[in-house]
Amino acid sequence: MSITAATRVYGVIGDPVGHSLSPVLHNAWIADHKLDAVYVALTVKSDDPVAAIRALDGFAGLNVTVPHKEAAAKAAARSEGLVANVLRREDDGSLSGFNTDGLGFLDALAEGAPDWRARVRRVLILGAGGAALGIGQALSPYVDTIHIANRTATRGEQTAAAIPNGRTARWDDLERAFGHADLIVQTTTLGMADQPEMEWPVGLCRPNAIIADIVYRPLETPLLAAARARGLTAIDGLGMLIHQGARSFELWFGIKPDVLKARERLLAALA
Ligand code: ATR
Q: Ligand 1, atom 22: nearest CA belongs to which residue?
């Protein structure tokens, strides 16, 4: 489809967005469905991100990444929560905010461990940022407890307090936390290419534990490699990326896109 003045423009905003896989993901789905639309990555640096987002009024829809998810919720005329990773332009020109991160994680979990609901009562989340909060809130109704372990304890306490059955676990005693969890979700930047690694006490995990890492560069983080070596269920970060994107696409276009094809395409883009 050639680009004309009628083409609807979508994109991902954040800082940085140069390595985002979202354009690959969405442009392939746009082509699959022969839509007159295009999806770009746009760096937004601003002292007033709410105003900057409101000024992007030519965009029909946006994904929002670090550090603008809170500003996106504020920029919207209505938002599902205080943090939005999806904005949709309505017919009257106003913006609606949504958050597909948490449900996208649940989709990825169901894909990697279809019986997770029977297996998981105690969750350990490593990290306390926006991703940790979204995942914790999405998991909350289905599990007994969610322990948050974060390097900075005060931030861990804040995130735990925003999750109904949230508790804190000590970052300096991860051995104990790992030994108790049925599901461990790694949401920090540790293990990302060029970032520090960490010796996670995977040897202490329960034999039936599920380990998920939301990092996808590299796809096989040291944490996931250790989990697989022990025969645990390991879930990589591409699943959440694809499923939060699929839910975004559905909010904009009313179409459920092909997630299996998306995985093949993103693996090729990563290679
Ligand atoms: P996001 O919104 O994507 O989750 P974020 O808000 O920047 O991102 O959160 C990053 C998380 O990674 C935080 O939990 C952070 O811990 P602090 O609250 O202590 O900063 C964690 N993190 C980043 N680098 C880390 C490191 N070297 N060691 C331990 N935790 C780290």
A: 188
